[in-house]
Amino acid sequence: MTFERSQIKEGVSLSAVKTNKFKTNLLTVNLLVPLRKETASLNSLLTDVIKRGTVHYPTMQSLNKKQDELYSLGLASYVQKRGEVQAVVFELSAIDDNYTFDKTNLLEQSMQLLGEMIFNPITENGVFVADYVAQEKKNLIDSIKAQINNKTTYAITRCHEVMCADEPFSVNVAGDIDIVEKITPEQLYAQYKTLLNTAAVEVLYVGSMEPSYIAELISKYLPFDARKPAPMETVVRTTAGEVKYHTDKMQINQCKLSIGLRTGTTLKDKDYIKFALFNELFGGSPSSKLFMNVREKKSLCYYCQPIVEAVKGVMVIASGVDIKNKDTTFEAIMEQLKDIQNGNISDAELRDARKSLENFYREITDSPASICSWYLARIIAGRADSPEEAAKLVNAVTKQDIIDISKKLVLDTVYSLEA
Amino acid sequence: MCFLVKENKEINEKYYYKVHKTGLPIYVFPKNHSTSFAVFGTRFGSVDSTFKTADDKDFVTVPDGVAHFLEHKLFEDENGNDAFTRYAQYGGDANAFTSFVRTAYLFSCTNNFNENLEVLLDFVTHPYFTEQTVKKEQGIIGEEIRMYEDNPNWRVFFNMLAAMYVNHPIRRDIAGTIESISQITPEILYKCYNAFYNLHNMALCVCGDVTPEQVEAVCDKVLKPAPEVSIARMTVDEPEHIHQERVTLNLEVAQPLFCIGIKQTPAKTPEERLKKSAVNNILLQLMFGKSSDFYNRHYESGLINSKFSASFEQERQYAFVDIAGSCENPDGVKEAVCEEITKRKEQFFTREEFERTKRAVYANFLFNFDSTERIATDFLTYIFADTDMLDFPAAISNVTYEDAMEELSASYDTGKCVLSIIFPKK
Predict the structure, then answer these.
(1) Over pLDDT 90: what percentage of chain B?
(2) How far apart are the first and last CA of chain B?
(3) Are β-strands B103-109 and B93-98 bridged in parallel, bridged antiparallel, or unpaired?
(4) Which of A359, A362, A367, A370 is best to mutate for the B interface (most B CBs within 10 A)?
(5) pLDDT at residue B228, rounded to an integer
(6) Residues of chain B contacting A352 with CB distance shorter than 8 Å
(7) Any catalytic annotation for residue B71?
(8) Cβ <8 Å between A23 and B84
(9) Does the CB of A76 have a partner CB in chain B at under 8 Å?
């Protein structure tokens, strides 16, 4: 497996992982912009409207039929949040040319279609089709509302919102209902043009082809102009004021407890690996302190897991508990953190956490999606180390490193979703 | 006896197979990935709640949720050690799951494969249950059950099953209820363990950078020969008809969620099962896939949205179609689905549409082979259905236009169609 990063044009880069492991090609075009309330909804809606058709395949059905013909070509578009960066993603997944019946140049044909989706969407009167925009606005609003359906993820999102209320990180990457409602086809098209012409473009590729061939396909089918993207800063807070307590009410059986902390370490930091190992030992695996003590010994919950946003430097410890055990669980979780801060780490715990983290890094190289996700986060944080390189650093982290890094964590918010 | 080899040259995949001297069937799928994956499974799932072994005079019925409870409890040994901790020293990432018809224990690792496999084989073959450990688990599983109670996607699916099936235990939750698991005792767990965790009733599937000989050597070291057992499972007298046409529930959701179920008659032989699965995948894609007339027409009219999906599920004892989504008017969707089925029975698709869809279904299947986890766990599913994952591509290719037409008229009875809805709370 080799990794190569190259510049196609100013502001347009390709990161290619060449490997023969897979039967598929995965390519993502990531348009990176600062996450802001005013534009997040537009970008989100754009990824829905753009799927409705192209100049050559003017209906969703004709576009989908073409994808079927291209061996069930996957074309997806969606938005993601990494720290205070919004990634507008266009994704292509195709089977490798070698597995087509007639050994055809499937990747090239697929790139052509991807290019068509991004650069030649169907329009009317010079803007997006009004009917499509109206429909996708409704679908998007429904889907934002439906975020309450999954109580686990909703309680994590709400905790982020309460915790970072006055920071761009609290912006809902899917969009804001009030803003979506007001979007016009003209406004959406203008944003589309701005995005296409000014966003930082990061293309990621995983598959068997030579990076030079991918670069050639990009030049041919993804005609991005050179650009000077605005810098994308994520503001990191390492301290917290008075602890915020927030409760939302819902008629549910299980209370969702989300504990928000500032980690004091982000992916930008050279010694991020120390934090990663701390996290593994704290709650990242079934042999971690949270799992072994809060779940197994105290039988308080089925899950109790830290969810880390490494670019922003925030952690939410998410758990589902019986409401009468809410306070006990909170105490039990914080006690485990204090335990680490006090240096209470056994050799076995350290060994297990190291093995587990090393394994986690090495497994990333076996999934095209994980590889893409790994490099996207790293590129945003301004680094390019590989999972293998990270795995090699794990054993050098000492107990003292973990203790030191754990002391940077500060409690910010206690959120609960309960009946 | 040496390993037999099965190869599919077209998709460039092969595996090695033998029955280990202890009675355990072993399957090894070499793959040049960093991650190796092993699954050790038994044909014991939530539906196997009434059974009889050679020692029993009569059939015994155990509380709902036992298979899943047993899965949790096997992780603990007599010294109070957790299997997770044993794996951890070798870097193995472990998990387990229980479905309607099987329980599987698995791990993935990028190092120390032999040691991790030793842990897997050892802990699954060494049960240890006490009053105290059973009681502790009731707390954890109780929270797992409550978590699912608040999960609308889970509830809408299980309500659909309960509407489709009159007697079959598939209509009951895999984890049981807080009430049913409170009846579980160490004796019941041992009873089930001794009946179903027999190597002849199990299988080991490994996928990764490993050799068959290596896997066999670990089996030699850890496993002891098992006597052949016979387990009689109570055959469920399940009528052809459905239980209830429409079932609703109110939960904290934004928009109604729905599952439309179409009850089918399960295939009788492994060959038919494989074929049935291939033909139904093609049919559902043709009728309800993203490039279908149905999907596009109703997407444009606003009846459905991109959450709409259709899938086919089958095991030895059951087969059904599950059409799911979220929209304002689930009753309208069901009506449209039934209309479409009726219409297509009279006016089937063109041969060109059929061929294009077949190719897409075939290509889609290939995506599964990029993950050792996917290969190992899916492979076990095929094995337990007495079928072979490597035969599936050919099964898709062999489906004819006429096969698809026949299956549509034989297995899509709109009179066996149920609708489950979760409405928002008022």
Answers:
(1) 92
(2) 66
(3) antiparallel
(4) A359
(5) 86
(6) 85, 88-89
(7) yes
(8) no
(9) no
Give the residue-averaged pLDDT of A75-97. 97
Question: Is the minimum CB–CB distance between A135 and chain B shorter than 8 Å?
Answer: yes
Give contacts of B254 with chain A, Cβ < 8 Å. 142, 145-149
Q: What is the ipTM of this complex?
A: 0.91
Is some CB atom of chain B closer than 8 A to the CB atom of A303?
yes
Instruction: State the smallest CA–CA distance between residue A242 and chain B in angstroms.
Output: 31
DSSP strands (E only) in B317-416 = 318-326
Contacts of A58 (CB under 8 A, 6+ apart): A122
Contact at CB, B356 and A287, closer than 8 angstroms: no
Residue ranges of domains in chain B, CATH in brackets: 4-233 (3.30.830.10), 246-424 (3.30.830.10)
List C-alpha distances in Å: B99 to A20, B63, B105, B203, B380. Answer: 34, 16, 12, 16, 12
From chain A residues 199-238, the ones with a CB under 8 A of any chain B CB are none
From chain A, pick out residues whose CB is under 8 angstroms from the CB of B153: 149
A291 interfacial to chain B (CB closer than 8 Å): yes
- What is this structure's pTM? 0.94
Give the position of tokens 């390519």.
Answer: A27
Instruction: Report whether B285 contacts B416 (CB < 8 A).
Output: no
Token code pair at residue B82: 């957790």
Q: What is the DSSP string of B261-304?
A: EEEEPPPSSHHHHHHHHHHHHHHHHHHHSTTSHHHHHHHHHTS-
A394 CB near a chain B CB, below 8 Å? Answer: no
Catalytic position from the list B7, B10, B71, B353: B71
Q: Least CA distance to B85: which residue of chain A?
A: A287
Closest residue, chain B, to A61 (C-alpha): B291
Q: Where are the alpha helices (DSSP H) in A70-129?
A: 106-119
CA-CA distance, A337 to A410, in Å (whole number)? 10
Which one-letter DSSP state was computed for residue A283?
I
Amino acid making up residue B81: N
Instruction: Give the model's confidence band at B1: pLDDT under 50 very low, under 70 low, under 90 confident, else very high.
Output: low
CB within 8 Å: A363 and B139: no
Task: Give the contacts of A258 (CB within 8 A, at least 6 positions apart).
Answer: A155, A156, A158, A159, A316, A317, A318, A319, A413, A414, A415, A416, A417
Considering only CA atoms, which of B268, B96, B63 is closest in space to residue B197?
A: B96
Asked if residue A83 has pLDDT above 70, the reply is yes
**Please, are residues A57 and A63 in contact by the beta-carbon 8 Å criterion?**
yes
Summarize pLDDT for B221-268 with one digit per residue, the tens: 999 999 988 899 988 899 999 999 999 999 999 999 999 999 999 999
Helix axes B66-74, B186-196, angle to 10 degrees: 90
Chain A residue with Cα closest to B292: A61
Residues of B in contact with A292 (CB under 8 A): 82, 84-85
Residue with structure tokens 């490993």? B210
Across the beta sheet with B13-19, the strand order is B4-8, B13-19, B25-30, B202-208, B36-42, B103-109, B93-98
Over pLDDT 90: what percentage of chain A? 94
Cα A245 vs. chain centroid, distance in angstroms? 27
Please report where in the chains the tokens 């793959």 appear, as a residue: B31
pLDDT digits (tens, 9 = 90+) for A354-388: 999 999 999 999 999 999 999 999 999 999 999 99
Residue with tokens 């209470």: A344
- Cβ contact, residue pair B150, A69, below 8 Å: no
| Single-letter amino acid code for the residue at A224 | F
Test B93 with A360 for CB contact under 8 angstroms: yes
Nearest to B253 among A149, A286, A366 (CB): A149
- Does the pLDDT at position A14 exceed 80? yes
From residue B372, how far is each of B33, B93, B271, B332 by CA, in Å? Answer: 8, 14, 25, 41
Mutate which of A287, A301, A351 to test chain B, going by most B C-beta atoms within 10 A?
A287
